[in-house]
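Dear all,

This email documents one entry for the complex benchmark we are building for the journal club exercise. For each entry we list the sequence lines for every component of the assembly. Then comes the predicted three-dimensional structure of the complex as a token string, followed by one or two observations. Please use this as the template for your own entries, and keep the labels exactly as they appear.
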Amino acid sequence: MSVVSARGLTKVYDSTAVPVHALRGIDLDIAPGSFVSIVGPSGSGKSTLLNLIGCLDHPTSGSLTVVGEDVTVLGREARARFRGDHIGFVFQDFNLIPVLSAFENVEYPLRLLRGGATGERRRQVQEILDAVGLGEIGGKRPTELSGGQKQRVAVARALVTGPQLVLADEPTANLDRDTALLVLELMKKMRDEFGTTFLFSTHDPRVVHEAEQIFTIEDGLLRSGGGAS
Amino acid sequence: MMALLAIAARNLLRYQRRTVLTASLITLGVLAVLLFVSVAGSFRGMMIGQITDAMLGHLQIHHRGYVESTENMPLHLNLGPDQVQALTARLTTMPEVEAVSARIKFGAMLSNFTETTSIRLTAMDPEQELATVPLLGGRVQGTDPRQLARGEILLPDVLARGLKINPKDTVVLVATNRDGSVNGQTFLVAGFVEGLSGPGGRDGYLHLADARELLRLEQAEITEIAVRLKRPEHTDRVVGQLRLALGAGKQGQGAGQGQGPGAGAGVGSGPAGAGAGSGATPDGKPAPLEVHTWDQLSPFSTIAKMIDLLTLFVQIMLVSIVLISVMNVMMMAVYERVREIGTLAAIGVRPRSILLLFLLEGLLLGVIGAVAGVLLSYGVVGVLDLADLTFSFGRQEGLLLTPVLDAATVAMVGLAVVLVSALASLQPSIKASRLDPISALRHV
């Protein structure tokens, strides 16, 4: 069973004078545990597709199933709960909370979404920080970390709640090539370790070949997909 | 919930200076309100105590219409011996009543054999009077008012100074009797009474039996009965009971009936509730008695109401301070953390949790300010109590300021601050919870 399955997915932004057709009928299937990239130029619809799969937005039409659930029928609260239960996010700008340490940033979603005993929670956070190679610097604040380290913390934060799917919108856009490759390697390693499906968007040809499956999107249409590198 | 509370507390520490400034503002507001309430309450309580304990008693019973004509001190609106006896019997059986004092109020001419002036007089039984208005003793110079004997008089100090009257001097009182004739009698000046604001504050005092002799009252009639209660806060309850029992309705209805002493319904003869509010006895005749509380008899009640009004204004100011400062801080917090809110929403924190998170931050700010304000207020009030501050009221000097913070006021102010903080945080919190995650994540 696919972790993501879309059929005839469209998204039209009609808040402007001229409606913008961001997605014009996308069909795709993503298998569990895969490492997938969505590639395309700026404005092609990559982020829109990720937002729909991430339940941050509603499609205009078409069907979309994520982790076996039809997410098009979910309301605002239900979508939030669904995201907390099944999806992790990694952002281009890391979106770490500057006044919290790396450890606390990773702990934040656990405290808010899962609760639980402090000791167990801290053990989980330390485990995931060790897994991304930051076990020794959990006490540092984001301003004291390099770009690569920040994105590692962001990956740890995305994984700490145990999601089946991690969505990363341009996760390497703010990193140099070597660091970008290291982050992608880490994500792949995490996929191997936790069995999590990773879906990331990029328009950077330097890193696209790291994906095992590539969907190319242009003008809201899927031009190609399924090709493993 | 506890996780949200812990995170809210942590978030407040992010912007320490802002949190400290806002909490300090709330603290100062709470301090100002509680100090004002306690000091004004002390002043108010002191003044009320002076008026009730040195002059009026907590309530008074008169013949209907007497209070309206009190400036003339009419003698035809006296209470008869049967009424007095029945009233006294009823009052002394009421558990709330501590003491009662029967009085005759009248006007007379006072002469020191060289000059003559008018004087207002209160005739009383010294034991009863001192039990009812115990602070009267503090107003009297030259003698113990309990020892006031027949043939002795206590003169208002201002009047005595004006006429150059000294203790042990002999003076003459000439009074007009009820039938229009006049009668005179000599008195020995036993001492002087310090004046007090309000009705009866410039009265001289003499023995009840002397007044009856001077006024040629053949029966043991009186003008009023002053009542002292064990707990002043029971005044309204006791007045209500008395009005029901006496068939005396709300005050201010109907003019004086001009009935002679002893006329009217018997005390407590009607069933409970009969005549209440209508001022009528069960047999339909106008009730002959009226019950007045101290505040209906004293102009100071207006000052007391002004103090209450000022207290209300100060409390409104506090509410405004808390509302504006907390709302300002929370609005800033939301605007500064738009991306963070977007991130929280994206990772699955539900809108209601985001709302609660910001609401708790505002609430905590209010709680911190309120707790600090209350603690500081207790400290300052304690220092004021230790400082033995005195003040003057009218001609009275050296009144000791004893501010007290009662738990109910503290709880009310604290609760108001916390509720207003929550209210002030509500709009920013709702705004935060309704932010679109995609737009919030793009916010720069």
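Observations: Confidence is low (pLDDT under 50) at residues 251-281 of chain B. The interface with chain A takes residues 2-4, 6-7, 14, 339-340, 342-353, 437-438, 441 of chain B (CB under 8 Å).
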